[in-house]
Design brief:
Pfam families: Cation_efflux, ZT_dimer
Strand content: 5-15%
Number of strands: 4
Helix content: 55-70%
CATH superfamily of the largest domain: Cation efflux protein transmembrane domain
GO molecular function: cadmium ion transmembrane transporter activity; ferrous iron transmembrane transporter activity; zinc efflux antiporter activity
Structural class: alpha+beta
Order of helices and strands: HHHHHHHEEHEE
CATH topology of the largest domain: Alpha-lytic protease prodomain-like
Strand order of the largest sheet: 3-2-1-4
Radius of gyration: 26 Å
InterPro entries: Cation_efflux, Cation_efflux_CTD, Cation_efflux_CTD_sf, Cation_efflux_TM, Cation_efflux_TMD_sf, CDF_Transporter
Distance between the termini: 56 Å
Protein name: Protein p34
CATH class of the largest domain: Mainly Alpha
Shape: elongated
Family: Belongs to the cation diffusion facilitator (CDF) transporter (TC 2.A.4) family.
Largest sheet: 4 strands, mixed
């Protein structure tokens, strides 16, 4: 796709199409980083990383966000030069047709990446899909705009489109950085997911009294959960363990790749403000 967009720019001389090609350079670098991160994150837990290597994917997403911002700066520089010395695009029909083919392929690939990234809960794949889809949106706008330049002869539209492309890329880059840093900072699961977890614990922990101090975090495709489960003081270890097994099975059925830690406490530890067991 990078090669096709480069040919489209070479044929037309359009700075907006050059901006589109520059973003594709970032796509290539980001995809390489994502591949390396996913390969590393797939390694099993070891003595030095007992919780696994899943967070490596967030580093890839942070790098991709930084690369997006660098690409936007390069595009703004090119658009300013073209605004000072505008030129009409050459061989516009052929160049735009080639760019349209590249955009259509990128759209199909972005949707594939997003579908697989969500299924695998992979931050690196989802980040790559978001980046590629922003490329599709800007490419469509560039194609329409350059076509308008060729039809009307309004030359300043070309650098303006390049600058707007850079603005959209910057927005995408900052959003990606925000999401990736959130993962590195052990953000909790979304409120809706947390509420589902509370309902499952309340429904499945029959025999216990309450659950409290529920904490969660993400690490790549894994969700880490931990909480305290209060049981009657007279309950045997085996009975308490059976309740924990039942709760864990229900949570893992709801949350793929969940890693759960439950600390059992006697009824004297009840806080009366946790999850009451139904």
């Amino acid at each position: 796709m990078l090669g096709l967009k480069a040919v489209a720019w070479w044929l037309t001389g359009s700075v907006a199409l050059l901006a589109d090609a520059l973003e594709s350079i970032v796509n290539v670098a980001a995809a390489a980083a994502a591949l390396a991160a996913i390969s590393f994150s797939a390694r099993p837990a070891d003595a030095n990383h007992p919780y696994g290597h899943a967070k490596a994917e967030y580093f890839s997403a942070v790098l991709e966000g930084a690369l997006i911002i660098v690409a936007a700066m390069l595009i703004l520089h090119q658009s300013w030069g073209a605004f000072l010395a505008p030129r009409a695009p050459e061989q516009a029909k052929l160049g735009l047709a080639i760019s349209a083919v590249a955009t259509a392929v990128n759209a199909a690939w972005a949707l594939t990446l997003m579908r697989r990234g969500r299924a695998l809960r992979s931050p690196a794949l989802i980040a790559d899909a978001h980046h590629l889809w922003s490329d599709v949106v800007t490419s469509a706008g560039v194609i329409a705009g350059v076509g308008l330049v060729a039809l009307t002869g309004t030359l300043w539209l070309d650098p303006l489109l390049a600058a707007l492309t850079a603005g959209n890329i910057l927005f995408s880059g900052f959003r990606l950085l925000r999401e990736s840093v959130g993962g590195l900072m052990d953000e909790s699961v979304p409120p809706a997911t947390l509420e589902r977890i509370r309902r499952i614990v309340a429904a499945e922990a029959e025999g216990a009294i309450e659950a409290h101090d529920l904490r969660s975090r993400h690490a790549g495709r894994y969700t880490f959960l931990e909480f305290h489960l209060v049981v009657p003081g007279s309950m045997t270890v085996q009975e308490a363990h059976d309740i924990c097994d039942r709760v864990e099975a229900a949570l893992k059925a709801e949350l793929d790749s969940a890693i759960i830690t439950i600390h059992v406490e006697p009824e004297a530890k009840a806080k009366q403000k946790g999850v009451p067991v139904l």
